TrEMBL record:
Annotated membrane topology: Multi-pass membrane protein
Gene Ontology BP term (one): very long-chain fatty acid biosynthetic process
Chain ranges passing through the membrane: 125-148, 160-181, 188-206, 218-238, 259-278, 298-317
Cited InterPro entries: CS_dom (IPR007052), HSP20-like_chaperone (IPR008978), Tyr_Pase-like_PTPLA (IPR007482)
Enzyme class: lyase
UniProt protein name: Very-long-chain (3R)-3-hydroxyacyl-CoA dehydratase
Chief place of localization: endoplasmic reticulum
Pathway(s) per entry: Lipid metabolism; fatty acid biosynthesis
Source organism of the structure: Sphaeramia orbicularis (orbiculate cardinalfish)
Length: 335
């Protein structure tokens, strides 16, 4: 006969966490149907190796999608509340099931959870604000210098701007982590493509080849990157205050249409210009065993990278196009 395992629970405003005390659980089945969670698995629990099961009828609706992870010591289940809020108890039952107890390792009361959210929002806000200030400094500085020094500035962009650009792009890498850990509602791949793509150009192509640093292409790449970021970051900043400024939303989801292909084109020109330099300097060349030859030039990696750029452009263009349809066209229909 199936036994009941010990189950520990905790909540946040959006999620429910369950910890099922089963060692080396196997054949796990977790389902939610009509707001009732049914769990069944084999494993080592309080009554030794056995089949264990339980069910819980939740107090309020939860989303049917469940994520669970089995570790050597327990099974961790995460569910999402249908509606954001704080539950006074987990189940509809008058009395708490005997096998259920609070998970004090994850337990927070409502005000602590609220503070946790506020702390997260503060950090996100600080991150976005710093990025916005950085890219604004770059954009304004480049515009002013272009007016003052004219064409000469095209050859000097890297030396006057690169330190702030390095800082901003390192900061932008956090966006991938934010997407991966669900801190912001966005997909990981587009952010990863964007960050890896830009950092490759900045650190490898411009950063490691002195000869590239005096090329006008640096100006175009930096100017195109910063042109979109001085729109994108304020768009996020306003979203933290629940403000929607229609013109900014339109710009955020429209300006990429000319800027993205131009940006990729400028980056591709930089890669193509760098190819003979890597061949000449043998920088980053991959040494080969003596019988085969001396080394493989890094320029081969750059040829592969040019193909990846086309793929990256396609993926992100489709992603941005979908976002535009959702944010601009759906809203128009609704009004
Ligand atoms: C696997 C590795 C492979 C490596 C291959 C390398 C290939 C290289 C190809 C490289 C091509 C890159 C070229 C590029 O560098 C050139 C340029 O940038 S040129 C300049 C023009 N560029 C652009 O216009 C792109 C700008 N960038 C972006 O838009 C984003 O980085 C992107 C990831 C592409 C899309 O952003 P996201 O998916 O986040 O879209 P949203 O902004 O709409 O966000 C979705 C929802 O999440 C909320 N969100 C996101 N971030 C935040 C935040 N920080 N704070 C608060 N909220 C955030 C946002 O509000 C949306 O919410 P909702 O759905 O409610 O509207």
């Amino acid at each position: 006969m199936a036994l009941t395992p010990h189950v520990y629970w905790a909540q946040r405003h959006d999620d429910i966490y369950l910890r099922v005390e089963l060692t080396d659980a196997q054949n796990i089945s977790v389902k939610v149907h009509e707001n009732v969670l049914r769990f069944r698995a084999q494993g080592r629990g309080a009554k030794g190796q056995n089949e264990y099961e339980f069910s819980l009828e939740f107090l309020l609706p939860v989303k049917p999608e469940i994520s669970y992870k089995s570790t050597q010591r327990q099974v961790n289940i995460t569910l999402q509340k249908e509606q954001r809020g704080w539950w006074e108890k987990l189940t509809v039952h008058e009395r708490k099931p005997v096998f259920l107890a609070p998970d004090f390792d994850r337990w927070l009361d409502e005000s602590d959870a609220e503070m946790e959210i506020q702390e997260r929002v503060r950090l996100k806000w600080l991150h976005v604000l710093t990025s916005f200030l950085g890219f604004s400094w770059i954009f304004i500085n480049m515009t002013v210098r272009l007016f003052i020094f004219g064409q000469d500035f095209l050859y000097d962009t890297f030396h006057s701007i690169s330190k702030v650009m390095f800082f901003c792009q390192i900061l932008a890498s956090v966006e991938v982590l934010n997407a991966a850990f669900g801190v912001v509602r966005t997909r990981v791949l587009p952010s990863l493509i964007q960050v890896v793509g830009r950092n490759f150009i900045l650190f490898i192509i411009f950063g490691s080849l002195e000869e590239m640093q005096n090329k006008p292409v640096v100006f175009f790449v930096f100017y195109l990157w910063s042109s979109i970021e001085i729109i994108r970051y304020p768009f996020y900043l306003l979203s933290y205050c629940d403000i929607e400024w229609k013109t900014l939303t339109w710009l955020r989801y429209t300006v990429w249409i000319p800027l993205y292909p131009l940006g990729v084109l400028a980056e591709a020109v930089a890669v193509i210009q760098a190819i003979p330099m890597f061949d000449e300097t043998k920088l980053f060349s991959i040494p080969l065993p003596k019988p085969i030859g001396t080394s493989v030039s890094f320029s081969y990696i750059l040829y592969i990278y040019l193909v990846l750029m086309v793929l990256g452009l396609y993926i992100n263009f489709c992603h941005l196009y979908k976002l535009r349809m959702r944010r601009i066209h759906t809203k128009k229909k609704a009004t």
